[in-house]
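Much of our argument rests on the idea that a fold can be written as discrete symbols. Part of our work consisted of pairing the sequence of a single chain with a tokenised description of its backbone. The amino acid sequence and the backbone structure tokens for this protein are reproduced below.
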Amino acid sequence: MTQKFDVVVIGAGPGGYVAAIKAAQLGLKTACIEKYQDKEGKVALGGTCLNVGCIPSKALLDSSWKYHEAKEGFAIHGIEAKGVSIDVPAMVARKNSIIKNLTGGVAGLFKANGVTLLEGHGKLLANKQVEVTDKDGKAQVIEAGHVILASGSRPVDIPPAPVDQDVIVDSTGALEFQSVPKKLGVIGAGVIGLELGSVWARLGAEVTVIEALDKFLPAADEQVAKEALKTFTKQGLKIRLGARVTGSEVKKKQVTVNFTDAEGEQQLTFDKLIVAVGRRPVTTDLLAADSGVDMDERGFIFVNDQCETSVPGVYAIGDVVRGAMLAHKASEEGIMVAERIAGHKAQMNYDLIPSVIYTHPEIAWVGKTEQQLKAEGVAVNVGTFPFAASGRAMAANDTGGLVKVIADANTDRVLGVHVIGPSAAELVQQGAIGMEFGTSAEDLGMMVFSHPTLSEALHEAALAVNGHAIHIANRKKR
């Protein structure tokens, strides 16, 4: 007999598993299909984020920062640390144990909420039927009242540097190095390239980042991007902008990369090469020809603002649809869709999705950049505050970077908060909370912030918008 569910979710990443749990909490009979297997051949939940993305990279970022601090940053505190060394396999093993913990946690949440896990590959057929094929090739068809497509994304491959997961690796392979490469190349100066490059740079690798674009971090606010480029260069990352990779050759466990830049043909040799040029949606064999769901030429599924596809009752969320490829965006889309299936009028505010780069210093922003607003012809007032003037940052010996608040010149409404520096992600989230409620810069300036905290930098930047900062000199109004 065919199994029937109110909701069938294909994919158990941060979009899919959250959607499945929420749907079950709303009283809907829910199944979630997942095929990803861990190294032991067991199905692992959590998608890219938990298994080979956000979480493992943060584990390595934190481990490498602690090592760097012990080696370079303890002396100023009067702490003597001699002979500090790094055990890379132990660091990677710790990362793996965190993954196991979290993926097991999702499985526990499925049980607690009554979500049925179906192991295998999910494919949408016509009339909201879903085919599930297990690892042995055995298929079953289930019926769904509603379907949520949440199959995620995978790293983009480029012909000039084919990944072998040995010498040339993608972001997944870069999490598995068992020793520090002497010379490391990174193709792509985006979020993933910068995070992974900085992990191995802190551990002693000589890192060169090759970026095809002429502009560094074009999605970030220009002032913040300039500060970031200066900081990373000071940290020893060699960032080559306007450099287009034309080919590569692996010989004797080394890779020679050919690229062209403003100076012409260039060649560099590395012990390892990370290809981090972005991600693409996983929609291969996801949809039967007669499923009725439309995709574009790049494999993204067409949806409206409520994540509805061209087929009534079929939704798509996360990395397979338009917008930023961010775990938190996928999760909130999952919540919205589950709520709508249950008959509620849920909406999502796409204008206030924070972005974070977990380098050190962190880079984060929410809302619009100064250049975007200028291009739109919006008159703005801008307030900045450097961490160099923050007592709490000085106490922590972490004074690089700044907070920037952008407000509408006519209404004073905050339109963007941009931070590079300690706890940037947490400070930007404070800005996002305020912006969700339509805060003005004056509102933020009138709130009481505890002292001494890093948050005070946001307070002072908001005050600076209207020339009222206390702990830095205000710009004279023309």
User: Anything to note?
Assistant: The domain at 361-465 is CATH 3.30.390.30 (Enolase-like; domain 1). The radius of gyration is 24 Å. The chain has a mean pLDDT of 97. The first strand starts at residue 4 and ends at 10.
